[in-house]
Amino acid sequence: MITNYIKIGDYMIIVIGTGAGGGLLARELAIKGLPVTILEKGPYVESKDAFNYYDNYSEDVDLLTITCVGGATIVSMANMVRALDKELLDYDVDLSEAYPYVEKLVGVHQLDDSHIGKGTKAFLDAASELGLETLKMPKAIRENECVQCGKCAFGCPVDAKFTGKDMVDEAIRAGAKLITHAEVTEVISENKKVSAVKYVKNGIEEIMAADKVILAAGAIGSTLILRKSGIEDAGEEIFFDPFVSVGGYLKDIQFNTEVQMAGLVIGKNFVLSPHFSSFIRANIPNDNVTDGDILSIMVKTPDDCKGRVDENGDVVKINTIHDIRYLAEGVATAGFILEKAGVDSTTIGSTVYRGAHPGGTAPIGKIVDSNLETEISNLYVCDASVLPLSPGKPPILTILALSKRLADYLEN
Ligand SMILES: Cc1cc2nc3c(=O)[nH]c(=O)nc-3n(C[C@H](O)[C@H](O)[C@H](O)COP(=O)(O)OP(=O)(O)OC[C@H]3O[C@@H](n4cnc5c(N)ncnc54)[C@H](O)[C@@H]3O)c2cc1C
Fold it and tell me: Which protein residues are within 6 Å of ligand 1, measured from CB?
């Protein structure tokens, strides 16, 4: 393979990946006037086309990723909750200043009632009647643009929610350079100090000189790059916030076209949120049932960091007794809520078990220090990999806050 050597300017920070971690970090560094080049494996696409770039991380577990500018944020539900803020203090990571900054930047708020549909309301009312703690999910969605189509997970057709792509656009406006279709394979170091990044673009290997590198290629992508760069212990642990969707028949609820996951129940060991799954209909032996007749709830739990990323990048996950118990508690509670909401209890069923948010592969305290720096000087990791525990909740806001904190640190 031909190798090109590239050096841009006297000083260069390279950000790898453009999802929750990389997008915000590139923006923050660029608006501070620092020289930033962003390397992204996927293409730059319109949000509405993002669903074409889904990929499965692994053959063994049902765990999705997406490879394009914006990473998994582009298909997210824009759910934004603080997670692990207290636990991270034990690792010397204080996000108390970063959270309000990122919440304001991406516009986190509970949706206006005009965007709370009939199914979500049925979920919230039933859960409150059962004495559960309920709230409208904090989101980063602009109601004046949102057309309430229920298609967040495909990529928003009208660009009405926060994505990492917005952050990349702002970074570019502030002077950052974006290189797409650039698959990073390795960070090169000399005497344990970063010197360059190796990537492949259009079949040609490029080596770009770098003074600082921030790896934000997601829990699996960052693991593979770290290992190739000499940090072999990466990916020896992993969590993925397991989830199932539980649902059944409720005639003409039309929940499938509502804003999804707009309500939330926080249990001790699980969170529940109304979420349409077309797989539920297959459980109901009645040909007349349509997607508009299904009410379903996502049950999501924290899991133990048991499992690993294998040599091929496949995820091997071990379910502990806690993982299974938490999921069972959540599923039973979801069943009670569905019944209370009027769902025909003889039709209630579940989807298969899936992973929602992989992370914990380069945890703070083991692979990175509290400033997110690795044992290789000037090589940082800032994405879901660094979370030392499973949040069991949507992690984007926490990753954004970590990025803001790191950007402030790197400025000084
Ligand atoms: C359908 C769906 C809905 C979700 N909804 C929510 C939600 O509402 N709220 C929430 O908090 N979380 C949600 N999540 C989870 C959340 O999106 C992820 O946890 C989060 O985006 C992880 O951030 P990250 O920076 O670690 O990785 P990502 O956002 O996945 O970004 C990684 C980036 O690195 C790039 N990359 C990978 N390998 C390389 C390489 N070798 N070279 C260069 N670039 C590379 C990828 O293309 C991508 O752009 C959802 C996830 C999915 C799949």
Answer: 16-22, 39-42, 64-65, 67, 71-73, 75-79, 153, 183-184, 216-219, 221, 225, 357, 383-384, 394-396, 399
- Say whether both 120 and 204 belong to one domain: no
Q: Quick one: tokens of 338?
A: 């569905």
Pick the more confident residue, 60 or 408: 408
Band the pLDDT of 173: cuts 50, 70, 90.
Answer: very high
pLDDT confidence bin for 1, thresholds 50/70/90: low
Does the residue 46 lie in any domain? Answer: yes
Kindly state the helix (H) or strand (E) to which residue 26 belongs, with its residue range. Answer: helix 20-31
For the segment 280-290, the average pLDDT, to the nearest whole number, is 87
Same domain, 251 and 124: yes
Of 16, 40, 76, the one to substitute when testing ligand 1's pocket (max ligand atoms within 8 A of C-beta) is 76
Go through 9-24 and write b for each residue having 16 or more CB atoms within 10 A of its CB, e for each that does not: eeebbbbbbbbbbbbb
User: Which tens digits make up the pLDDT trace of 326-338?
Assistant: 999 999 999 999 9
How would you classify the pairing of strands 212-215 and 13-16?
parallel
Give the model's confidence band at 222: pLDDT under 50 very low, under 70 low, under 90 confident, else very high: very high
Does residue 203 sit in the same domain as residue 326?
no
Output the CA 218–ligand 1 centroid distance in Å. Answer: 6
User: Which residue's CA is minimally distant from atom 47 of ligand 1?
Assistant: 67
How confident is the model at residue 286, as a pLDDT?
80
Mutate to test the pocket of ligand 1, among 14, 25, 41 (most ligand atoms within 8 A of CB): 41
Report residue 299's pLDDT band, with 50, 70 and 90 as the boundaries.
very high
| Residue 309 in domain | no
Residues 320, 232 within the same domain:
no
- Alpha-carbon span 81 to 135, nearest angstrom: 12
Say whether pLDDT at 57 is over 80. Answer: no
Amino acid, res. 388: P
Total of domains in the chain: 2
Let me know whether 220 and 328 are in one domain: no
Q: Is the dihedral of CA 168, 371, 302, 236 positive or negative?
A: positive
Question: Is 144 in the same domain as 277?
Answer: yes
Report if residue 328 sits inside a domain: yes
Residues 73 and 208 grouped into a single domain: yes
Q: Which domain holds residue 368?
A: 3-107+162-237+358-411
pLDDT category, 353, cuts 50, 70, 90?
confident
User: How many angstroms separate the CA atoms of 118 and 238, rounded?
Assistant: 37
